[in-house]
Design a protein that fits this description.
The structure holds two protein chains of two kinds.
Chain A: E1 16-19, E2 23-26, E3 45-51, H1 60-66, H2 73-84, E4 88-92, H3 105-118, E5 123-126, H4 131-144, E6 151-155, H5 160-170, E7 174-178, H6 183-196, E8 203-206, H7 216-232, E9 243-244, H8 246-250, H9 254-257, H10 269-287, E10 291-294, H11 297-310
Parallel strand pairs in A: 3-4, 3-10, 4-5, 5-6, 6-7, 7-8, 9-10
Antiparallel strand pairs in A: 1-2
Chain B: E1 5-12, H1 16-24, H2 27-39, E2 44-48, H3 56-70, E3 76-79, H4 83-92, E4 101-106, H5 113-120, E5 123-127, H6 137-153, E6 161-164, H7 177-189, E7 193-194, H8 198-202, H9 207-223, E8 228-231, H10 236-249
Parallel strand pairs in B: 1-2, 1-8, 2-3, 3-4, 4-5, 5-6, 6-7
The chains are: A alpha/beta, B alpha/beta.
């Protein structure tokens, strides 16, 4: 008897969400990269991170390559678009942190507007370390750039009303619902945002990210279980595409931060940082992330190759 | 694991309002009953037109078209012993929201409904009975197997059959309740889907405790493997119990607002 390849069929499907003008995320009805089972939807998207302040802590090759552009976010963004052409750009408002300049929401909005005007790529806005301040920043940025399908990282349990109301309802952008590696809360937060009136097609989720080696197995099983609930149980409250700010996590762990001088046996510092970034991104993509944010151009190149090989 | 399937029972010829509406082809009361059940969370709507010996072939398509045009996302369960009426209903049924369910086939005179289901690509409720209520589980399982054999012979996928062990009234047949639950378990362990009419269990009991009896029986039956039920979705207690049982069974991911969905 001829062998018949078994196919895992699901009733659920991940929603399609459009970032910017036409970067579509999601749409799959199978587990990540399971093209042998059915429709894998849109290719996972790769974004590159830029900052609103000088990136002193970044790898030397990136900082040197950027030169003066690293002082000017709009020029930095344009350079990234022209040189590396990622699928989207993520502007992270580090300068809003108290110890990095404590920029006001208005100042943040101005930078975001300049960046948005400088590039054609879809934009993702990430806030500072304070969820409370992010509520105010996102309101101003969304007001300055309404109806542009810009995704805002993130709405959390503590600020989802303010972020959801401003970003999603008043100014028609995309709310990223973020939870800390807790799938019950991930679902709950999505429901709360929808009950607030945010449309699911204007929502993404970040169920919590970490670098490899830092509770990463739990990140991956959480992603797995969210995707299985969405596909197998057809749980419509969990069918939003997933975006993960990989670089935010990987470039702050000791494997990326420790200098070669301090730990010579670990080898070149920048190479280590790239390795942590790539392994983390590959891990979350194969567990269900639809978009990842990266810092190093080499990570972008490797991830692009990885995705193209699998799909 | 798929979610628990609920079939709303409130469009039934036994209700005077529905009987009159069906006779007079008056859409409003039927649509109102459909709407309240869908809003309460029913997945399927049962449409019971009675034996309808005179006009079933005309009545069933009328009510199918009426409900599908008003509620295109809700699949229907066509309920009558009149085979011609079922066929006429299936001919106009749009399977986009989900396959129609025929209510019902049995191991006796209504075994032909299996062929109808196979022919029209419908699902069917397989009543584990021949004449009246089965005496014991040996009979139930024998009828279940007869239905299964026949289904396979006519090319109907066993996945498209909801086996109904026939729930019985607690007031008067109390000693049979555990047996029925055990039948649900046995059929489920054969890898088959099950269903049953919950209002059978509480029939004749005071109105204020019927909902409770149905909810408790349903939760006990779900633990035995019950995969769907014919219910009154306006019974909020029952709906909440089903949602909670789904969470406890791991069929739905818990979150604080799970009852709101």
């Amino acid at each position: 008897m001829a062998y018949k390849k078994p196919v895992q069929k699901f009733t659920g499907k991940i929603r399609e969400v459009t970032l910017g003008e036409n970067l579509k995320l999601g749409g799959e009805s199978v587990l990540p990269f399971y093209s042998f089972d059915g429709d894998t939807g849109h290719k996972p998207a790769l974004g590159m991170e830029i900052w609103d302040v000088y990136p002193e802590s970044w790898p030397a090759t990136i900082v040197n390559e950027l030169g003066d552009r690293a002082q000017k976010p709009a020029e930095w963004a344009k350079y990234v678009e022209e040189k590396y052409n990622p699928d989207f750009i993520c502007l992270r408002l580090v300068g809003a942190n108290q110890d990095a300049g404590d920029k006001s929401p208005e100042e943040c909005a101005l930078v975001a507007k300049q960046v948005a005007e400088a590039v054609n790529l879809p934009l993702v806005i990430a806030g500072c370390d304070s969820n409370e301040k992010n509520g105010k920043i996102f309101t101003k940025v969304a007001e300055a750039l309404p109806e542009k399908n810009i995704a805002f990282l993130s709405a959390v349990e503590g600020n989802y009303k303010e972020v959801g109301a401003a970003v999603g309802l008043a100014y028609g952008n995309i709310v990223v619902a973020e939870s800390s590696v807790d799938l019950n809360l991930a679902k709950q937060l999505n429901i709360l945002l929808m009950q607030l009136g945010v449309k699911p097609e204007k929502m993404l989720m970040n169920p919590g990210c970490s670098a490899v080696g830092y509770g990463f197995e739990y990140v991956v099983t959480t992603l797995d279980r969210i995707r299985l609930a969405a596909l197998d149980q057809n749980d419509t409250t969990l069918q939003m595409p997933i975006i993960m700010p990989v670089s935010f996590e990987t470039w702050k762990v000791k494997e990326s931060v420790a200098t070669e001088e301090d730990v010579p046996e670990w080898g070149n510092q920048e190479e280590r940082g790239i390795a942590v970034e790539i392994s983390t991104a590959v891990g979350v993509l194969t567990a269900g992330a639809n978009a990842v944010i990266l810092r190093h151009p080499r990570s972008l190149q490797v991830l692009r190759e990885f995705i193209n090989c699998l799909i | 694991m798929a979610r628990f399937l609920t079939i709303g029972e409130r469009i039934h010829v036994i209700s005077p309002v529905i009987r009159k509406a069906l006779q007079e082809r008056d859409p409003e009361p039927i649509i109102a009953r459909a709407r309240e059940q869908i809003e309460a969370g029913a997945h399927y709507l049962d449409v019971n037109i009675g034996p309808a010996e005179k006009d079933g072939e005309e009545l069933m398509p009328w009510v199918v078209k009426l409900l599908q045009s008003e509620f295109p996302n809700t699949p229907l369960c066509l309920d009558t012993a009149n085979t011609k009426a079922i066929e006429a209903g299936l001919k106009v049924y749009d399977p986009k929201p989900g396959k129609a369910i025929i209510n019902s086939a049995d191991a006796g005179s209504r075994i032909g409904m299996l062929e109808v289901a196979a022919e029209y690509g419908a699902m069917v409720i397989g009543l584990c009975a021949k004449e009246g209520i089965p005496r014991d589980n040996e009979e139930r399982i024998a009828y279940c197997t007869e239905i299964l054999d026949k289904a396979i012979a006519v090319g109907l996928n066993p996945e498209d059959i909801l086996f109904d062990p026939l729930f019985v009234v607690v007031k008067g047949m109390q000693e049979k309740q555990q047996e029925v639950l055990d039948a649900v378990r046995q059929i489920s362990e054969m890898g088959l889907k099950t269903t049953g009419g919950l209002s059978n269990v509480s029939n004749g009991c005071p109105k204020e405790i019927r909902g409770l009896i149905e909810a408790v029986f349903c939760s006990m039956a779900i633990q035995c493997g019950l995969s769907s039920a014919i219910i009154n979705p306006l019974n909020k207690l029952l709906m909440d119990v089903i949602k909670t049982a789904e969470v406890i069974k791991g069929w739905n991911l818990y979150c604080d607002s799970y009852l709101d969905l």
